[in-house]
Design goal:
Blueprint (H helix, E strand, L loop, with lengths): L27 E2 L23 E8 L3 E2 L3 E4 L10 H5 L2 E3 L2 E5 L5 E4 L1 H14 L7 H14 L11 E10 L11 E11 L10 E6 L23 H9 L4 E6 L4 E5 L2 E8 L6 E5 L10 H13 L5 E5 L4 H9 L3 E8 L3 E10 L2 E4 L10 H14 L8 E3 L2
Parallel strand pairs: 1-4, 10-11, 10-17, 14-15
Antiparallel strand pairs: 2-3, 2-4, 2-9, 5-8, 6-7, 6-8, 7-19, 8-9, 11-12, 12-13, 13-14, 13-16, 16-17, 17-18
Enzyme class: transferase
GO molecular function: L-isoleucine-2-oxoglutarate transaminase activity; L-leucine-2-oxoglutarate transaminase activity; L-valine-2-oxoglutarate transaminase activity; methionine-oxo-acid transaminase activity
Organism: Tortispora caseinolytica NRRL Y-17796
């Protein structure tokens, strides 16, 4: 349970070079005077409705982190010359708060999101922060607006921490000012009528990320360039791109998710769960890490191999022709798992098996249950962090 020790600005500790560390004890709360009307559960649209309040923390290179503020959700006031507008000094995270079956409020592995946000921010010359302190502050925001979290499995509060460079000056250099803020949106099940397997277009004429780049960071600059290729794929009847890289035609990611394939191994006859390795080009997904950990713990080693290795689109096409392709799915915070039923590469189709009468493979369904049981407290697990 998170409890604030003090609202005093003096409670902040000093970090490197005498700069103030981020401190939940310094939190100041200004409640909104105009609470918003909540939408019925069946009208929630992902990322379109926002709770009453937001968390905002300013930073500057002279003093460090300022006192955190929870205030009414509303517009930010930034100078037109702010660094975020000109040089893409922006990174973000995505995680969810859940109302568990016992009524408690939970976060799912928030420490992983804090570590990744710090990794992203420092890569683009923005400040780092104490992740545990930000988790406490997010907990206070969630508790304040907990009535916005709809009841029922599949419903949650999507949390979006952002860090931006706010220095009001042109010139490509490390920003002297930054802002870390958190907004939140109540969301329902990603698939409102149940699983819907997706069709993907394997894309190798455009590159999402490359070795030595920043494909493993959650930067806004990684996402905007993918919209045009995605729109072009949608015109041809596909929901997402499956990004292919290099002369080996390696599969990297699917849209905004990590990609997983289950292929029967030729030599052993075992099912192999395959996902691309973390070599700097692949986003270090929290759901990806959770799937790998649970699979290694819960799948029998006599029947399964769990691999972090590259597979080429040609390998997958060959496995499909030979009847060794078992299933495939994408993984991410929004949908947890998104089953894949078809991939097209240079006009050639790859059909991916689904369970008869269903829109997902057996392992895909199993993984969804494993993770949601933890998120909603059906299974007590260290990954489910109580915040009240």
């Amino acid at each position: 349970m998170f409890r604030l020790k003090s609202n005093s600005l003096c409670s902040r500790s000093l970090g490197k070079r005498g700069l103030a560390d981020l401190s939940a004890a310094a939190l100041q709360i200004a409640r909104t005077k105009s609470p918003k009307k909540k939408l019925p559960k069946d009208q929630l649209d992902f990322g379109r409705t926002f709770i009453d309040h937001m968390l905002k923390i300013n930073w500057n290179s002279t003093d460090g982190w300022q006192a955190p503020q929870i205030e009414a959700h509303g517009p930010l006031v930034l100078d037109p010359s702010a660094a975020v507008f000109h040089y893409a000094f922006e990174c973000f995270e995505g995680l969810k708060a859940y109302r568990a079956v016992d009524g408690s409020l939970r976060l799912f592995r928030p420490d992983k999101n804090m570590a990744r946000l710090n990794k992203s921010s420092t890569r683009i010359a923005l400040p780092s922060f104490n992740g545990q302190e930000l988790i406490k502050l997010i907990g206070e925001l969630v508790k304040l607006d907990q009535d916005w979290i709809p009841e029922g499995q599949g419903y949650s509060l999507y949390l979006r921490p952002n860090m931006i460079g706010t220095e009001a000056a042109l010139g490509v250099h490390k920003p002297s000012d930054a802002m870390l803020y958190v907004i939140a949106s109540p969301v329902g099940p990603y698939y409102k009528t149940g699983f819907k397997a997706v069709r993907l277009e394997a894309t190798d004429n455009v590159v999402r990320a490359w070795p030595g780049g920043v494909g493993d960071k959650k930067l806004g600059a990684n996402y905007a360039p993918c919209i045009v290729p995605q729109a072009e794929a949608e015109k041809r009847g596909f929901q997402q791109n499956l990004w292919i890289f290099g002369p080996e035609k390696h599969i990297t990611e699917v849209g905004t998710m990590n990609a997983f394939f289950v292929v029967k191994d030729k030599s052993t006859g075992k099912n192999e769960l395959i996902t691309a390795p973390l070599d700097g080009t692949i986003l270090e997904g929290v759901t990806r890490d959770s799937i790998l950990a649970l699979a290694r713990e819960r799948l029998s080693s006599d029947e399964w191999i769990v691999s972090e290795r590259y597979a080429s689109i040609l390998d997958i096409a060959e496995a499909a022709k030979e009847g060794r392709l078992v299933e495939a799915f994408g993984a991410g915070t929004a949908a947890i798992v998104s089953p894949i039923k078809y991939i097209e590469y240079h006009g050639q189709g790859i059909d991916i098996p689904l369970q008869e009468g269903k829109e997902a493979g057996k392992l895909t369904e199993t993984i969804l249950k494993w993770i949601t049981d933890i998120q909603y407290g059906i299974e007590e697990h260290p990954w489910s962090v109580r915040i009240n």
